[in-house]
Amino acid sequence: MDISVVIPLYNEEESLPELYAWIERVMNANGFSYEVIFVNDGSTDGSWNVIEELSRKHEQVKGIKFRRNYGKSPALYCGFEKAQGDVVITMDADLQDSPDEIPELYRMITQDGYDLVSGWKQKRYDPLSKTIPTKLFNATARAVSGIHNLHDFNCGLKAYRRDVVKNIEVYGEMHRYIPYLAKNAGFTRIAEKVVHHQARKYGKTKFGLNRFVNGYLDLLSLWFLSTFGVKPMHIFGFLGSIMFILGFISVIVVGATKLYDMYCGNPYRLVTENPYFYLALTTMIIGTQLFLAGFLGELIARNSSERNKYQIEKEL
């Protein structure tokens, strides 16, 4: 099979027939063998009924129905598990992504040799309250991930080699960082394609401004896990050691200052009356706690089933 199209959706019953008809036209015009996997993320409207009807009429249509709303990342994860195509394409169900982009995305994967091609909605039909935070978000994601050639990490229209989606785990709200997940898994041939963005035709957006706050927190978590996930002692042990040494030196300085004043006959006060003593002591305690946190993290990581899981591309 050439292409699997994975479409997560939530309350999009009006757009589904039109979206599938559009995909079908594009696939037939280019002679692709394909499947369309609709992942119904706990919709409360008639979306599942529409998917069932499409499945009865078209053998290429497959569906997954969640009992409740889990989010876009779980929907993509389940869709990726079910996908059988050599190239997997994801798009949103709201008709803002154009299926006309599919042939070129497929060509870039199969002929140009990219692992992942991400869409870039260079001209957007969104309000400024959405586009400005999006630009800041993408700038931060580029800096943290090191993938400097992507302008729109969160674009729903992407294409992947099948190996990519079978070797990454999309969870929580990490769908925003699939290129970063792919890079961490060893799939570094990542490209971008300018795609057409259309104004929403039916319904309303399912995402609020809180996604930007959650997005930054997820990015921080992903960076930390990819950098120190299997070696927590490198960060906690290092910081703990530095803090303990600074605190220990400060205690020595406080004590030595008192002894010097006593020797020279200068006025002095008890060490316990000096506020710097307590600051130094607190620094030593925090340093010890950080070091122990790193040590416990190492013990947990040592017993993790993922500790020696590596991405092997080929064997002879």
Helix content: 40-55%
CATH superfamily of the largest domain: Spore Coat Polysaccharide Biosynthesis Protein SpsA, Chain A
Number of strands: 7
How many separate domains make up the residues? 2
Taken as a percent bin, the fraction of beta residues is 5-15%
What's the CATH topology label of the largest domain? Spore Coat Polysaccharide Biosynthesis Protein SpsA, Chain A
| CATH class division of the largest domain | Alpha Beta
Q: Uncertain regions: pLDDT < 50 for 5+ in a row?
A: none
- What class would the helix/strand composition place it in? alpha/beta
Number of helices: 10
Radius of gyration: 27 Å
What is the 3D form?
elongated
Major sheet, described briefly? 7 strands, mixed
Strand order of the largest sheet: 3-2-1-4-6-5-7
GO molecular function: undecaprenyl-phosphate 4-deoxy-4-formamido-L-arabinose transferase activity
Protein name: Glycosyltransferase family 2 protein
Keywords: Cell membrane, Glycosyltransferase, Lipopolysaccharide biosynthesis, Membrane, Transferase, Transmembrane, Transmembrane helix
Pfam families: Glycos_transf_2
Key features of this structure:
316 residues, alpha/beta, Spore Coat Polysaccharide Biosynthesis Protein SpsA, Chain A, 2 domains, 10 helices, 12% strand, membrane
Describe this structure as you would to a colleague.
The structure is a single chain. With 316 residues, this protein is α/β, with parallel strands linked by helices. It folds into two domains: 3-228, Alpha-Beta Complex (Spore Coat Polysaccharide Biosynthesis Protein SpsA, Chain A), CATH 3.90.550.10; 233-302. Helix content is 49%, strand content 12%. It has ten helices and seven strands. The protein has helices spanning 16-30, 47-57, 72-82, 102-110, 128-145, 162-166, 178-184, 210-228, 233-264, 275-302, and strands at 3-9, 34-40, 61-65, 87-90, 116-120, 158-161, 190-194. A seven-stranded mixed β-sheet has the order 3-2-1-4-6-5-7, sandwiched between helices. α2 links the parallel β2 and β3 (61-65). The chain is elongated, with a radius of gyration of 27 Å. The two termini are 26 Å apart. One of its GO terms (molecular function) is undecaprenyl-phosphate 4-deoxy-4-formamido-L-arabinose transferase activity. This is Glycosyltransferase family 2 protein. The chain crosses the membrane at residues 235-256, 276-301.
